[in-house]
Every structure is written in C-alpha cells, then in structure tokens.
Amino acid sequence: MSIISPKWGGGIIFILILKVALMANRNTHFEAELDIRNKSIVDGIFFLRSRNLLKREVTCGYCSELMTEKILRNHVDGISWVCSNNSCNKRRTTCSIRKDSFFSFFRLSLADIWTLVIMWCEDIQIIEVQRRYGINRKTIGLVYNKLRELASNYFDLDPIRLGGPGIICQVDESLFCHKQKFGKGRT
C-alpha cells in the first residue's frame, strides 16, 4: 500500500495542517489533541474519526456488505470490524479498525501513535518524547520517519507552487544552503 493512499481520506491533510500551523506560529500548542491519552478506547476512536484518521464504515471483502463494530478483547484496540451478514461465506471475519489508515503501520496504542504525531508536529526531539511518555526510542523514530515519508510523498505529488500569472516571487539567497568557509558563518 502506498504511503499516500486515497483510502485514507482527509486524515493526511489534517496531520499536515497541524504541522504547518505549528511551523507558522511557534506559540501554538495542541494540548486538546493530546487529551486522547485520558479518554476511553471508544472515545479515542471517535476522536480520531472526527479528524478523518479512522474509517467510519468498512465493507466486507467477500460479500461487500457493511461490517459492524464489535468489542473484541483479544484485538489490539479492543474493537474490530466484523462481518455480520448471515449469507456471507466468511461471516464473522474480523478486520482491524486501523485498516487503510496511518495507524495500521504500528502496533502501539492509538493514543500513543497520535501523541507521537502531535510531538512530531511540534518538533519535539525523540529523547524528550521518550522521557515524557516512556515510549521506546526506536519506535518513536519509526513513527517520525513514516511521518516524514508521508509529508515528502504528499508534497512530491502536490508541490507548493510559488508565484503565478502576474505575480513575481523574489527568493533571497539566504534561503539556500550555504557552505561555511574556514569554520565561520556569515557575519
């Protein structure tokens, strides 16, 4: 599955908007977004669905009928999609609520993954995130790298265009990488 999947809907856009908002205004923080850590699993799933990060409905891959949500304790999130069509050969087939979402790449709890997304948006270093939340450094690195890949692929497919008809853009040379000479920066 491609990192930018049309199945993901507006969730990717939401994550990138968070990142851009934080880049534009460094005083902005998203405490409300981190509130997911204090919610029940059901409330957390509703929270993520309200941001188009998880699907609201899924169809069975065998009978094409809508699946229903069931509480299943043996699944990672405690809730899964289940085919309840009596005429389906694969009736009671389960499917993760993470299907076709960014969360499907990881085995962490949804709240932990979302926390890492917010930390990445705020440019919080991996060591600081590990100290705050006790999540493994390698896991944090994997999520951060997947987010970087997602952002890179998104902007490769839909690049930001500067200027336009009748508009002149002036780009200062200081925006480009400049190699330091003799170990000194510009003065």
TrEMBL record:
Alphabetically ordered keywords of this record: Signal
Signal peptide: 1-24
Lineage: superkingdom: Eukaryota
Protein name: ISXO2-like transposase domain-containing protein
